[in-house]
Amino acid sequence: MATPLDPQAGRSAQDVTPGGVSRTPAQPVAGVFGVVFLVVGIAGFIPGLTTNFDQLSFAGHHSMAMLLGLFTVSVLHNIVHLLFGIAGLALARTPGSARGFLVGGGVIYLVLWIYGLVIDHDSAANFVPLNTADDWLHLGLAAAMIVLGLVTARATRVAGPSAPDSRR
Fold first, then answer.
1. Would the pTM of this model clear 0.85, i.e. be above it?
2. How far apart are CA 79 and CA 49, in angstroms?
């Protein structure tokens, strides 16, 4: 069965938001990041996926719980991932907010990466908590989110009557 077309723009109804703005690649990308952050936030509360679960603290560098035995987590860390996931799903609804989530979230992760490099992992300033694996993951997330947010921004087009063909 064929997908119904938007009569004004010749686009499928799936590619147009209720406000008449075309869906962009930023929206599903932001949604995927949102889902991943939700899964990571939930996984941080599951014994087995989180080793040393009995040593999970609310915040601070004293938490010895490790997601997948690699990334230091705390209750606060998990809550931040859950909130980031909810934000990603909510902001994926429109092209502008999806781009904002990707670029803004990438900047936040870039700041977290720098913070993780600057602070001593055994100091009280390490309230998230972070370890070396977290630091490098944050750099990767920052780069991916910023690049994807900027690259997918170019695909935004407002649905409406097609421009007249200049070749006529």
1. no
2. 16
